[in-house]
Structure formats: structure tokens, C-alpha cells
């Protein structure tokens, strides 16, 4: 009996060891593999190309079963729509994502602050900063809200020590712009929700939106805005090694990054093309080239090159517009302005159409973009310069066309008028003359003789009306007789 109990105990002990060795990840079932870390580099303005790059990079990291994705970032901000696409990708990612503001001197302003708050791990390099997340839209009165007065009770509230320092949730003074107020409130609520999701300082999130507040890396670490300050990527991976991250799916992942291999993914040709096309100034120039190319093709059919080039440029411009936050009223005004400037070159409007076209073009350029995010605005000097260059080009083409219409025709039937020929045959069936190397039937008011020089004065079907050219000496002889 005792022997049977010992054998049963031994068997249970062996089974326990078997399960313990067979499931080494039992306590670490959600631990991320230490074999690979994918690093995505974001430099410059956040736009459609950036969102596409991040989406593709995260998809590649998932396919390669990476343990961590690091987004190295240096951005002044960007488009709200592109930023939200990136944040949705981060929130839905089954892989932990760390956003790292680097190198020294970099920033995560505006849209970059939102992305940093949304990431599972927020890190910064020394001498970097984040914040200034106030949304800016075209038409904002005065470019922002007026500064608050020091003792204004509407904009301050007592702090813990009785000081009027905390302005995060203070009521806002009327700004005279309901739409901007709605945009600002939406942005503040969005960033605050991300802060609450990640357990970060929500008060600074509010101030970053409403007051354009900014923090340095050390201040952000002390204030609970970020998790780590690291000198470089290797230092960051060493500092977060062993950290536990809770994903939005509910899974808990323990990072093993100290000795992980880093794979850096750079933008490919598709992302570079999207980045170029996302420039609103280039899209505007392509649109104008397309309009002018199609116009020249319609007015001078058969040439081919202007029409084909214009159609391609116009389609590319429309594709670029659908990537950007475009106000289509601005596009319509630009098209109307270009049409009026084209009409000025061919209609006697004494400048009315041309001036109206320039005005419509400039106003359309101002209305074209629905945002003034860094890198996506169209400067007024650029719009005015493009309008003046377009007007000068159209006037030059119109003047050339007018001069061409006044020139003598040098080909075709009309070119025979005023041509000089020689009578070759005079018979009862009619007279024939050699004109421009061809034999033509001719008629004249008076009699003709072979060898007479004649000038064409008109054409009727295939018959030329001519008049005989009297040599100068014949006229002198007739006057003396």
C-alpha cells in the first residue's frame, strides 16, 4: 500500500515537472519575443503619406511576429485626419508600441503629442519637447484666443496652496467663433481620453490643447506625461526591458528588449510619392498645368502633347486633392479664375475678365486648404505669384495668337490670292496659267495671251480670277502714243 502511494506520488511529481518544463511560458505566456524590434522613423509633417507608412509598418511587424514597434518621431504636427488614423492603428495593435521623440533637439508638437499619449510606452530623448497641441483651422479669428488676465476669475481657479495656477478646466472666455470652440473642445477631450487610457497626466493634456503648453523631456517625466527618458534607441530598449504592458485587447505583455535585434523600416517609393503629392502647392501647380494643357489642346487640336500632359497633370492633381483636407469651393474658384483669365486673351473685355480671373484665383487659393497645419498651408505670396504668372502666360499666348491672325496666309487655297503666275495656254475652251507650280484655269476682265504675267485676285471653285500685270515700259509707251 505504501509502495503504491509512493509510486503515485512519484508519478504526480513527474507530471508536475513535465508540465512545468513543457510550458515554460506558462507564467510568461504573453511575453513578447526578444528576437525582433521594428523601428519606424517619422520625420516632418504628419500627413496621408505618414499614416500609410505607419499602417504598412505595423502590418509588417505583425507578419514578422515582432515583439515591439518603436516609432521614432520628430514632427511639428500635421493633419488631424492622418493623426487619428495612426492612433487607431496604435490602439488596435496586438504588438506593444513605444513612441520615442528623438534625437536630441527633436519635438513632438501638435499631432505628435497625441500620438505620444496614445502609445503604450512614451519616451523622449534629452533636450526634446512635446506639447503645443492647440488645433488651428483656417479662418480662426486672430489666430487664437486672447490672453487671460492675471486676476480674471473666469480663467483661474485656486490651486492646492490657494494660488490661482490651475487653468486646465477653467471656463473659456467667448471667442466669437463657435466652430473653433467646438474643434478645441473636441481636441481637448480626445487628448484627455488618451491620457486617461494610458494613465498619464490629463491636466497637461488639457493645457497642451487649450493653452498650447509645452514640456521638456525632464519636465514631462517628472509630471507623469512620459514613461522614460533615454539617450538613444539602445538605451531605450535597455530601460524598458522587463516592463509589463497591457494592450487594449486586454492581453498583458512583458517586454524582453535588452538584447533584441532592431529592424529599421524606411519609407518605400510609394510613400515617397505620396509624400510629394501631399504637398498642396504642388497639387495646385499640377491643376493649373492640367487646365492650360487641355485649353491649348482644344484651341489647337492635333498637337497632342499639351492635351495628354494636361490630362495626366489634372488627374494627378485631383488625386492629390482627395488626399488633403481640401475645400472644393476653393478648387471651383481657382478653375473659374483660370477660365476667366483664358477668356481675357480672346474676348474684348478691356481687362474685366482678366482682373476678375485673378481675384477669383487668389480667393480660391486662400480657401483651398481647410487647415493651416504646419507644411500644409499655401502662402499668400505663392498664390499671388502663381496668379500673376498665369495671367502673364495667358496674355503672352493671346498676343501671339492675335499677331498670327494678322499675318498673311502662306498655305492652302487662301495663299493663292495675290500670287503671280504666267499664262501658258489660251484657246476657245479657256485660258490656263502656271501659278505656284500648278496649272490652273483662269479668267480675266480682258484678253490674255500666252506669256502674260497675271496676278490672282480671287478664287471660284477650281478657277482663278486674275488680272494682267502691265510691265512698266508698256505703260510708258501707251502714255507717249
Automatic annotation (TrEMBL):
Residues 167-177 have a biased composition (Low complexity). It holds the Pfam family NfeD_membrane. It is a multi-pass membrane protein. Residues 413-468 form the NfeD-like C-terminal domain. The keyword Protein biosynthesis does not apply. Residues 49-136 form the NfeD1b N-terminal domain. It is found in: Membrane. The chain crosses the membrane at residues 273-295, 350-368, 380-402. This is Nodulation efficiency protein D. The lineage of its organism: Bacteria, Pseudomonadati, Pseudomonadota, Betaproteobacteria, Rhodocyclales.
Amino acid at each position: 500500500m505504501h509502495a503504491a502511494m509512493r509510486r503515485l506520488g512519484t508519478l504526480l511529481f513527474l507530471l508536475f515537472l513535465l508540465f512545468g518544463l513543457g510550458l515554460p511560458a506558462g507564467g510568461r505566456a504573453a511575453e513578447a519575443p526578444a528576437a525582433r524590434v521594428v523601428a519606424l522613423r517619422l520625420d516632418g509633417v504628419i500627413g496621408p503619406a505618414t499614416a500609410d507608412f505607419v499602417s504598412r509598418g505595423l502590418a509588417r511587424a505583425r507578419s514578422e511576429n515582432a515583439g515591439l514597434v518603436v516609432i521614432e518621431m520628430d514632427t511639428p504636427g500635421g493633419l488631424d485626419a492622418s493623426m487619428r488614423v495612426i492612433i487607431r492603428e496604435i490602439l488596435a495593435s496586438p504588438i506593444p508600441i513605444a513612441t520615442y521623440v528623438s534625437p536630441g533637439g527633436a519635438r513632438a508638437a501638435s499631432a505628435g503629442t497625441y500620438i505620444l499619449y496614445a502609445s503604450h510606452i512614451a519616451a523622449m530623448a534629452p533636450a526634446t519637447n512635446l506639447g503645443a497641441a492647440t488645433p488651428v483651422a483656417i479662418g480662426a479669428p486672430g489666430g487664437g484666443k486672447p490672453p487671460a488676465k492675471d486676476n480674471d476669475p473666469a480663467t483661474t481657479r485656486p490651486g492646492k496652496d490657494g494660488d490661482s495656477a490651475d487653468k486646465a478646466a477653467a471656463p473659456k472666455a467667448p471667442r466669437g467663433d463657435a466652430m473653433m470652440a467646438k474643434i478645441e473642445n473636441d481636441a481637448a477631450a480626445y487628448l484627455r481620453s488618451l491620457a486617461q487610457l494610458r494613465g498619464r497626466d490629463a491636466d497637461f493634456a488639457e493645457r497642451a490643447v487649450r493653452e498650447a503648453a509645452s514640456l521638456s523631456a525632464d519636465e514631462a517625466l517628472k509630471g507623469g506625461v512620459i514613461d522614460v527618458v533615454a539617450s538613444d534607441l539602445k538605451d531605450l530598449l535597455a530601460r524598458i526591458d522587463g516592463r509589463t504592458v497591457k494592450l487594449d485587447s486586454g492581453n498583458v505583455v512583458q517586454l524582453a528588449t535588452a538584447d533584441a535585434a532592431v529592424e529599421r523600416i524606411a519609407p518605400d517609393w510609394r510613400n515617397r510619392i505620396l509624400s510629394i503629392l501631399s504637398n498642396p502647392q504642388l497639387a495646385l501647380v499640377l491643376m493649373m498645368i492640367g487646365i492650360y494643357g487641355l485649353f491649348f489642346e482644344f484651341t489647337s487640336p492635333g498637337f497632342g502633347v499639351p492635351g495628354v500632359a494636361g490630362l495626366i497633370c489634372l488627374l494627378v492633381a485631383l488625386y492629390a486633392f482627395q488626399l488633403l483636407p481640401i475645400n472644393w469651393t476653393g478648387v471651383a474658384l481657382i478653375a473659374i479664375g483660370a477660365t476667366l483669365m483664358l477668356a481675357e486673351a480672346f474676348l474684348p473685355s478691356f481687362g474685366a475678365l482678366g482682373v476678375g480671373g485673378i481675384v477669383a484665383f487668389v480667393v480660391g487659393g486662400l480657401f483651398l486648404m481647410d487647415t493651416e497645419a504646419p507644411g500644409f498651408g499655401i502662402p499668400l505670396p505663392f498664390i499671388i505669384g502663381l496668379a500673376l504668372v498665369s495671367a502673364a502666360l495667358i496674355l503672352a499666348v493671346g498676343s501671339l495668337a492675335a499677331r498670327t491672325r494678322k499675318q498673311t496666309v502662306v498655305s492652302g487655297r487662301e495663299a493663292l490670292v495675290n500670287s503671280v503666275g504666267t499664262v501658258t495656254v489660251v484657246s476657245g475652251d479657256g485660258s490656263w496659267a502656271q501659278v505656284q507650280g500648278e496649272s490652273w484655269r483662269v479668267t480675266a476682265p480682258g484678253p490674255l495671251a500666252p506669256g502674260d504675267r497675271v496676278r490672282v485676285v480671287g478664287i471660284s471653285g477650281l478657277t482663278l480670277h486674275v488680272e494682267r500685270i502691265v510691265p512698266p515700259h508698256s505703260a510708258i509707251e501707251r502714255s507717249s502714243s
